[in-house]
Amino acid sequence: MRLVIQGSTISFQQLGHIHQLTSANHHQQFIQIGEHAYTLPNQQEIPRELLAFCLEQQIDISLVDDNHTLRHLGLAVMDMDSTLITIECIDEIADMQGLKPQVAAITESAMRGEIEFAESLRRRVALLQGLDASALQRVIEERLRLTPGAEAWIAACKQHNIKTMLVSGGFDFFADRVKAMLGLDVAKANTLEIVDGKLTGRVLGDIVDAQAKADYLERYRQELGLSQDQVVAIGDGANDLKMMAAAGCGVAYHAKPVVQQQASYALNHVDLEGLVYLFTPLSAHSSSTCH
Q1: Pathway membership of this protein (predicted)?
Q2: DSSP 98-129
Q3: Domain limits at 115?
C-alpha cells in the first residue's frame, strides 16, 4: 500500500509534520508526483492523528492499493453532474422555470440517499412540464462547464489506454455533449420526452438509476474482457454507490458522507486531476524525493 497526499497547496512544514505522523522511518522519503502531490510507499495504515491533521489542513489523504495504478486500470466509469461537470443539469433547467429551489431540494435528498433515485427523478422532471426545449441548449451554452482537472484525468486515461465511460442519471442531451467535449468512449443517460418543442415532464424508457449504472459498468467491463479489479468508478451521490461497488475501486469525488464512507478513496479538496496522482505508479516518479 502507498500513502498519497495532495492538496491545493502543501508546504514543506506540512509535509514534514505528516512524515512525523506516519509510521515511516527516517530513511523512507516522500516521492513528489505532482506540484502539490506526494506518495509514501510501504504503508499499512493512516494513523488517527494523521487523518485529523489532514482534515484540519484540507489535505486529501488516501491509502492506495499498489495494484491500483494507471498501468493496471482498463476502464474508468464516471458520473456526470457535479463530477465531470460543475453543475446539476436538472437544477439549471429548473432555474429557467423559476423552480430551482424546489428541484434542487429533491436532488439533494436523492444524493443523500433519502429518496429512491427513480422516484426523485420523476418528481423533478414532472416539475419541468411545459418548458420550452430550447432551455436545454441554453444550459449548455450558458452554464455547462467541465470540472477543473477533468481534461487532465481523461488525457491520462487515454495515454494509458484506459477506456472511459460516462454513466449518468441525468440526461443524454448533456451527456452526449460532455462525451464529445472530452472524447469519451461511451455515454449513457436518461432521455427527456419532448413533444412539439416542449418538455412533457416525463422520461422516455427505463430510468438510469443506481442499478442501471452498475449494470452498464458490468456489461462494458465484460465486453472489454477486463477483471473487476481493472475498473475504477467515480461519483458523488448515493446513486453512484452500486456502480462503485461493481468496480475494483470507487472514488468519492467531493461527495456526500454516505458515499465517502463506502468508497475506496475520497477526494474532497483537490480537483479531478487528483485522480491522476491517486493512481500514479511509484516507478513513474521514483527519482524525485523529499522529506
Answers
A1: Amino-acid biosynthesis; L-serine biosynthesis; L-serine from 3-phospho-D-glycerate: step 3/3
A2: T-HHHHHHHHHHHHTTSS-HHHHHHHHHHTTT
A3: 75-217
CA-wise closest residue to 72 among 284, 218, 234: 284
Q: What CATH number corresponds to the domain at position 99?
A: 3.40.50.1000
- Of 22, 41, 21, 23, the C-alpha closest to 31 is 41
Pair (136, 21) in one structural domain: no
The answer, as to whether pTM is greater than 0.70, is yes
Are 127 and 32 found together in one domain?
A: no
| DSSP reduced 3-state for 29 | coil
> Cell numbers of 173, please?
442531451
Boundary residue ending a domain (201, 217, 233)? 217
Amino acid at 30: F
pLDDT digits 0-9 by tens, 10-53: 999 999 999 889 876 667 889 999 999 999 999 999 999 999 99
Catalytic entry in 81, 91, 236, 240: 81
Q: What residues have CB less than 8 Å from 66, skipping those under 6 apart? A: 1, 2, 282
SS3 content of the chain, % helix, strand, coil (to 5): 40, 25, 35
Residue-wise pLDDT for 230-278, tens only, equals 999 999 999 999 999 999 999 999 998 999 999 999 999 999 999 999 9
Q: Are residues 207 and 122 in the same domain?
A: yes
In the numeric block, the cell 474532497 is attached to 268
Query: Is 91 in the active site?
Result: no
Catalytic residue among 60, 66, 79, 236: 79
Q: Tell whether 178 and 157 lie within a shared domain.
A: yes
Q: Edge to edge, what strands does the sheet with 163-171 contain?
A: 198-204, 186-195, 163-171, 75-78, 231-235, 249-253, 265-267
Could you tell me the three cell numbers for 250? 470507487
